[in-house]
Amino acid sequence: MVLWRTLVEIKLRETWNDRIRFNRSGLLIILLELVTLISIFVGMRVFLNDVGHGLKSEGDLVALAALTLPITFGNGYLLAERMLFGFKARVDRLIVRHPQEIIKATVVTAYLANLRPTLQTPTLMALALARIWFPHWQLELWVLYFLITLIGTGLALLVLLVVKRFFLRLSGLLLIVTPFLQIAGLAVALWLGTTLVKGKRVKVWASLNWPELIWWIPILLVAGGVILYMGLKSAALWEKAFLEQEERGTGRLGKKQTEFILKLLSVFRLPAPVQAVILKEWLFLWRNPLTTIRILAWLILSLLPLINSWLGAMVNSLSPLIPTFAIWYFCFGELIATAYQAEGRRVGLLWLAAIAPGQLATGKFLAYLPLTFFAGVTAGLMNGVIGLKGPAALLSIVFSIIGTTVGLALSLVPAGLTMNKVDYAGSSLTDMAMEQVPLTFYSLLSAVMMGGILVTFYFIVSLTPWPEAVLGAVVAGILGVAMTGLFLKRRYSL
């Protein structure tokens, strides 16, 4: 049977083939890592030349390096979730005798991935500072470089196994929160690094009275060993959670809810194939946890100007369409850009149902059309912040719906070119979340095009009479749906 070393080699070989051998995207990643290294050491060196007084305690460098922990935890959690609960985990379980071998391979693979310079920015910044002010502590900081990463990776694995086994409802939330942990860790590190470069100490860190750097190494070594030991001994938790996932399958709507949607669609007297496309889209959007997160993000961002006076004052100086389009694009722009990319293997269902390209284009457009009403609600809230009333307020709501509708119709044109280009083989939360992330050139083009259309529409309604703007928007929307159906004829194949 396969041992963990062989499994690690297989994972690394897969990454090599996917990123570099058969795809040149890996070269961009390597370039990004090199740029990160050069930017940190050269950039901070330039700033440090202007500083006359350095820090008095190396404990501040430990605090800076410790911010690597949330970054490596977030990345390690996402990698471990994909490896242990993704589609390929089934194959790993078949070729390995003991579950502990898979856990070991996951830890090693995630640990190696977390050693990338972009994920080690806080520690590298601490090393750059130590080179000038504490040159005798550089070796200890290099030890922390590997120790903190080990703790972050092991902690991510342990949290993942416990959550998947005992707190499954939190799994989707953590999948969304962990990227924000990475962003927050990097943001705080940049802020703290710029503060320390100026030779200043942060009051919070100064009051904590951090121990000397040499004492952190045995402390973190023991902590890392304990966390890693507990993670490796939790292999039984993974096996039980994985088997439960296989038995449970993906989330789906109940029979009564599906019947309600069918009755709702029948009211509009749409052709049966178009209704089928709309139903399929809504079912798959419902099962995806990222859809719920997008709606919650939209609600929070729309209400923030009402709660926060500073944001309210900023919105008050703008047209209500600007924050409305910005919030709507941030929350739902990617969702529309991946409308066709997300089909994957599901394109076979459309073939079996004998759905024509024009019917598919119409169904997709109508399925995502309700998203435009979110823009209308946001515009109403922005009107309340600005104090806009009467016909002007109603007109801004109408324009927000029309503008997003035009953006939807036209951005679906390049999105349709991604049909049958991405294959989603798994049903884990990570796989489902990736369905709403642009992965191809045309889906990225669709997302960029959506933003450009919203900006263009804002200037058009600001500079031209509104009846002409509405008429032009209607014509553009119809042409967008027609062009999408035309392009699908070339891409609509198994």
TrEMBL record:
The keyword Transcription does not apply. Signal peptide: none annotated. Keywords: Membrane, Transmembrane, Transmembrane helix. The chain crosses the membrane at residues 27-48, 60-80, 119-136, 142-163, 170-193, 213-232, 295-315, 321-340, 365-386, 392-418, 439-463, 469-488. It comes from the Bacteria. This is Uncharacterized protein. It comes from Carboxydothermus pertinax.
